[in-house]
Automatic annotation (TrEMBL):
<protein>
    <recommendedName>
        <fullName>PD-(D/E)XK endonuclease-like domain-containing protein</fullName>
    </recommendedName>
</protein>
<dbReference type="InterPro" id="IPR038726">
    <property type="entry name" value="PDDEXK_AddAB-type"/>
</dbReference>
<feature type="domain" description="PD-(D/E)XK endonuclease-like">
    <location>
        <begin position="3"/>
        <end position="309"/>
    </location>
</feature>
<dbReference type="InterPro" id="IPR011604">
    <property type="entry name" value="PDDEXK-like_dom_sf"/>
</dbReference>
<dbReference type="Pfam" id="PF12705">
    <property type="entry name" value="PDDEXK_1"/>
</dbReference>
Length: 321
């Protein structure tokens, strides 16, 4: 089983939602329900996608420029973002998700919007707002001169690098923990820095726990290909910054050994709750309608899997355990 921060959060919102995404959905499944769960797992809301677009532009265009010690220019950055924005929206508007034998990984401009799938495509005002957020996020980023200077001085910048490590749960089951920080920065004369870009209008939640998990994953990934020597590094050494790109705000986190221990215990407990749903069953064999659901049906409103999960308009279907 693979545990990640986003899987843990999805499970906490609704175990069945996690189960549809992580266990039932399979791209090559012969069972139409499993193939359908896979396709539904690819749906994004307009608001979550515009954040991913910003992440991709930073990873593919801002970081390479910083790596060679140059300042990125705003105009060309906005031009590539706009081109990508339009290509993805054209893909989503044509609802190409439903083309026969669709394989998302073969389409660089793949986008499937939940709003289109439900027959209520985003309004022009929403589309304009989403693009405005992309512009604001990138404009604010390029004005964060102190952060950009710091990154330009890094010996190594790794955007969206997957970190994985194995741990054993209290019951003896192995689990793989996976984390993908937005940016890892390594310096010759300073501890590593982890940066997480956020494109949130309200930015009310803090991501301290997510960043702490990245620091744990980095320390435990010592020895993996492409990473510098981390043998003497401890989680408290790692600098953690959350960058709220719409709020134009940097949040630095300082955590103690006890914080890290508590977070590690919480993660183990989260993984055990997931594992309990899989126990004694082959992956994918459990009837998803026997998996517990959220008790707050407002959660279902934005859920990708509602069409599979619900019994018409009545609410979630339940099978016999
Ligand atoms: S529709 Fe509701 S109950 Fe069903 S998986 Fe989604 S969030 Fe859970």
């Amino acid at each position: 089983m693979v545990w990640s921060f986003s899987a843990g959060r999805s499970f906490d919102r609704c175990p069945r939602r996690w189960f549809f995404r992580s266990v039932v959905g399979h791209h090559a499944a012969k069972d139409p329900a499993r193939r359908e769960a896979y396709l539904l797992s690819k749906l994004d809301s307009l608001w979550s996608w515009r954040g991913r677009l910003v992440d991709d532009v930073i990873a593919n265009h801002v970081v390479p420029t910083l790596t060679v010690g140059r300042d990125p220019d705003l105009a060309p950055l906005l031009a590539v973002a706009r081109e990508s924005h339009e290509a993805h929206l054209a893909f989503a508007s044509a609802h190409r998700l439903r083309e026969a034998a669709m394989r998302p990984s073969q389409h660089p401009d793949f986008l499937a919007l939940l709003e289109v799938e439900r027959g209520a495509p985003p309004s022009d005002a929403d589309l304009a707002k989403a693009w405005g957020d992309v512009e604001t996020a990138l404009t604010n980023l390029l004005a964060m001169h102190a952060l950009l200077e710091r990154l330009k001085g890094a010996a190594l910048l790794l955007p969206q690098r997957a970190l994985t490590y194995k741990r054993t749960l209290a019951g003896g089951e192995p689990v793989t923990v996976r984390a993908v920080p937005d940016l890892l920065a390594f310096f010759n004369d300073a501890p590593p820095l982890i940066v997480d870009w956020k494109v949130h209008t309200h930015a009310a939640t803090d991501y301290r726990e997510q960043l702490a998990g990245y620091a744990l994953a980095l320390v435990r990934s010592d020895g993996q290909w492409g990473l510098p020597n981390l043998r003497r590094l401890t989680p408290t050494d790692v600098d953690l910054i959350e960058v709220q790109l719409l709020k134009d705000e940097l949040r630095s986190y300082t955590l103690t050994d006890e914080d890290f221990r508590n977070i590690d215990v919480d993660r183990g407990e989260s993984a055990m709750r997931m594992q309990a749903l899989l126990k004694d069953r082959s992956k994918g064999d459990r009837d998803p309608y026997t998996v517990p659901t959220t008790t707050d049906l407002r959660t279902c409103e934005g859920c990708n899997f509602r069409a599979l999960c619900w019994d018409g308009l009545a609410g979630p279907r339940y099978g016999v355990t």
